[in-house]
Amino acid sequence: xxxxxxxxxxxxxxxxxxxxxxxxxxxxxxxxxxxxxxxxxxxxxxxxxxxxxxxxxxxxxxxxxxxxxxxxxxxxxxxxxxxxxxxxxxxxxxxxxxxxxxxxxxxxxxxxxxxxxxxxxxxxxxxxxxxxxxxxxxxxxxxxxxxxxxxxx
Length: 153
Hints:
Elements: H1 2-20, H2 29-44, H3 48-80, H4 90-118, H5 121-140
């Protein structure tokens, strides 16, 4: 009996500790956008004049991208959490994945067209490469994500 109580206490403490662990810091949408903006302007080495021209276009595009994520987040979340009884609606998930990519591409195209009106091609290239570099660094910081070829076991 005493062993059961000790075992139960250990299990409660163990699982209580797991549940009580923090997931890490949560950032607001503005924090994330501002962090990306800071990284991009430093990495692309934009002039002060270019920064003034690009910032409103960049911020507008980032907000559009956040709205897009919000739009599709519910579809992904709701369909992943369906019970086995009702089944997962894979068609809805597939449609959402493809439509998300198409909508994202439209937003990126709009962004590029706006940049072409205010910046020379070389500066746009530096800016777009800096944004790509930001995404790459962000993905490398995701815990549990191992980039590179998969090892066969």
